[in-house]
Amino acid sequence: MCIALISTAHPSYPLILLSNRDEFLHRPTAPAHWWSHPNTHILGGRDLQRAEQGTWLAITKQGRLAVLTNFREEGDTYVAQNKSRGGIPNAYLTQPPERRESSEEFARRLIEEVGVGHVGGFSLVFGEVRAGGEGGLEGLSIVSNRSVKAEDLVTIATKSGETHGLSNSYFGDRSWPKVVKGEAMLNAAIDDDQQRESGDQSAFIESLFEILSVDELPKRKQGEDWDVYVRQMRNSIMIPPVGGVSAESKPADTMASGKTGTDTPDHGNVEVHEFGYGTQKQTIILVDREGKVKFVERTLYDEDGNKMEVKDGQKEFEFEIEGWQT
After folding, report:
1. CATH of the domain at 113
2. Predicted pLDDT of residue 253
3. CA 171, 280, 207 angle in degrees (round to 5)?
4. Going edge to edge, which strands form the sheet with 163-166?
5. Is 52 part of any domain?
6. Does residue 230 sit in helix, strand or coil?
7. Nearest to 117, CA basis, from 79, 89, 155, 91
8. Which helix or strand (DSSP H or E) is residue 317 part of?
9. What is the total count of domains within the chain?
10. How far apart are the first and last CA of the chain?
11. H or E element: which one contains 6?
């Protein structure tokens, strides 16, 4: 039940990205870092469980950005994942830094060479973050293997004033309350930051993490069917560790699994165990008008499912996008 929120509505930041990664808390995952050779131009976390060591969110020194969300597969529509979805962002990010590839060219390569079959449902937001006309960006694209045609692209973030959310459904699905509320809260945080006129980036970033930490998931009712309860996750931006015995054998994008364990009002004082599923990582990316990137990631739980202090789980990076004005 991941979520990505993207906005071009802040006058100081032509691009703002917020992301929650929801996963099994015990899944081996590397925190955000600059990758090793030959991909030293890529910054992001990596999934260590699959051979592809794919990512859900990363950005390159040249401003190439990719963020992936899974589809919630209802009933028997789950597709056997012979390939990791994390390899989809990798296919875009690991191109040689000097290579320029249009969104249409990448979508064609994704379908014809990388392949989108035998992989679970996904939506990928991707594009080169560069200065565009009238203070805007060149724009980002969205491709999905659950659209009518995988090569059908949606383009966003081409002008100022846009705010968009994407969770575990198709882009534009307004039936997910967490998406609608996330968009509204992000716009409100941007307005509040402008009214402060202090330019306090740290305070603004903290307000964005507050959005990603909104927990409105009710406790599971006694006797409530698990699949019915999982649908409640559409309402909550953050997913606390949740689950139960009936869910242990199901895939992560079909359900959530584990005992609850968080200090939020509805989910306190319950131990997390090895099958816990919930918001594992939170990421904020700010890109200013000079092309300077601020990347902040918070890991909420360690590999044993224990809650981490912010000071222990936070990693910050800053760099300037190469070719920002190109």
Report:
1. 3.60.20
2. 45
3. 75
4. 163-166, 3-7, 15-24, 277-287, 292-299, 314-320
5. yes
6. helix
7. 79
8. strand 314-320
9. 1
10. 36
11. strand 3-7
- Transcribe 146-159 into DSSP letters: TSSSTT--EEE-SS
The pLDDT confidence band at residue 136, using thresholds 50, 70 and 90, is: low
Cis preceding-peptide flag for 38 (omega within 30 of 0): yes
Strands 163-166 and 277-287: unpaired
Beginning with the edge strand found earlier in the chain, give each strand of the sheet holding 122-128 in spatial order: 29-34, 42-47, 57-60, 64-70, 122-128, 140-144, 154-156
Q: Considering the domain boundaries, does residue 266 fall inside one?
A: no
DSSP states of 55-85 as a string? -SEEEETT-EEEEEEE----TT-PPP-SS-T
Tell me what the mean pLDDT of segment 148-170 comes to: 89
Non-local CB neighbours of 82 within 8 Å, separated by 6+ positions: 118, 119
Backbone angles phi, psi at 202, to 5 degrees: -60, -40
Q: Tell me the pTM.
A: 0.89
Which tokens go with 24?
Answer: 């099994």
Residue span of the structural domain in which 75 resides: 3-219+279-320
